[in-house]
Amino acid sequence: MPQLPVITPTRQSSGRVRAILVLTMLLGSALPFAGANAQGLIDRAKQKIQDRVNNAEDSLTDAALDKATGAITCAATNTQCIHKALGAGKTVKVVDKNGKPVSAADSAKAVDAAGGVPAAMQSASATSNGTAATSTSVPAFDNTVLVNYDFVPGDRVIFAEDFSKDAIGDFPKRLELRHGNFEVAKWQGQQYLRTNSSGVVTIPLPEVLPQRFTFEADYSGSSGWNLEVNFADPDAVDNLAQASFSPGSGQLAGGGVSSGSDLPEAAVKPIAHVAVMADGKYVKMYVNGVRVSNVPNANIGRGKVVVVGLPGSEDQPGYLSNIRIAAGGKPLYDAIMADGRVATHGILFDTGSDRIRGESKPTLDLIGQMLKDHADLKLTIEGHTDNVGSAASNQTLSDRRAAAVRQFLIANYHVDAARLGSKGFGSTKPAASNDAPEGRQQNRRVELVKN
């Protein structure tokens, strides 16, 4: 009995999984297409990582970095130093008695003890060349490469999956198989959906995708193949635009539109974080903080399933995890005025840390602009966690993260410190059950509460 052909997502976005299946049946084999440009990007990224390892001893020291950025180092107890540096528009690096940087929460406390950000800094002052002079107090913030990055994740989680509840070696319980071979595998310290033969899976949703939604996932695979994502069943709906991602590029194509681009070399990573933000027919796509596609008239459809083509081979398996699909919500100010509070899921932190990740900037920009537009608005910033870990560590972490966000807004958006408070609640106030991935996602949040 002849073996059935395997459906294999091609590098070029055809827009229809059914068309791929028909063509594969006709040819009787998979149709790989190696993208030379994408391969070059991956090779250069790998070489760059190796170069960093080989030349680690030549990296800049903290002192050199402080000098280059004009940062002033002050002890947490030296309020006069902190006050004077902030008044001069300098960045302050707050350290403990041993000269080691303190946490963002302790930095915020030290700045408050020194009198907060000076009143003169509550609005940007003009320098002699007409540019805006700004200063920061130091909540830790990473230097993620961001290009035209305006992604803000949806605030109501529809589906989330990290495969942590699935047995290694099994097909995941919450997905449906269409074609190919898949299993859950442990890789890079966490569990992923893995394939070494390519194929297609369906993500069943509890509701039809709304007009405003976001999709996110972590993907790793060969640079010669593309992860393909359809937001309605392509076997049931014609002429859909399809999102496709490689580790070094992204494209939205089909249904009469085509838009895509490669990543800057510095943004290419072994595991790519891919994202889609849709509002009606307006669709934007991102890879590793870089906007790769911007289409105002895309027909992506809306279904009760998301259909994913995951490429992979024996030499280079495909991996997919940390899937998050969420509905968009009201604008921040409207939500706060209506309900007295709003939950945000776009402020991200390093694991177990109060260090704010660079991808948080679009959400922080929205909050900062809202506070500028509504000068009478006063907020308490609340930190919340899921129930993973001890209650004590979650409480401490949520306190520090809320304080870090507060201080970041004060320092970078020139908000009067008296308008903002912060408080952590750990896992004591869940917004949803922690028994499911969607609930845990919903519970890991920063809330803005009107005072």
Q: Summed up, what is this model?
A:
With 451 residues, the chain is of the alpha+beta class.
Describe this structure in words.
The longest helix is centred in the last third of the chain and has 23 residues, at 391-413. Helix 5 (104-113) crosses helix 8 and helix 7 (361-373) packs across helix 8 (391-413). This protein has helices at residues 17-27, 36-54, 62-69, 79-87, 104-113, 332-339, 361-373, 391-413, 437-443, and strands at residues 72-75, 92-95, 125-126, 132-133, 156-161, 176-179, 183-187, 190-195, 199-204, 212-220, 227-230, 242-246, 249-254, 257-262, 272-279, 282-287, 290-295, 305-310, 318-327, 341-344, 379-384, 420-424, 445-450. It is of the alpha+beta class and 451 residues long. Strand 12 and strand 13 form a beta hairpin.
Radius of gyration: 24 Å
**Which class do the helix and strand fractions yield?**
alpha+beta
The name of the CATH topology of the domain at 147-327 is: Jelly Rolls
Mind telling me the CATH superfamily name of the domain at 147-327?
Exo-inulinase, domain 1
Which CATH class of the domain at 147-327? Answer: Mainly Beta
Residue ranges: pLDDT <50 for 5 or more in a row? Answer: 1-46, 52-69, 117-138
Percent helix, as a range, is 10-25%
User: What is the CATH architecture descriptor of the domain at 147-327?
Assistant: Sandwich
Tertiary shape = globular
- How many strand segments? 23
Q: What is the assembly state of the chains in this entry?
A: single chain
Arithmetic mean pLDDT: 79
- Count of helical segments? 9
Proportion of residues in β-strands: 25-35%
Q: Mind summarizing the main beta sheet?
A: 8 strands, antiparallel
**Terminal Cα span:** 71 Å
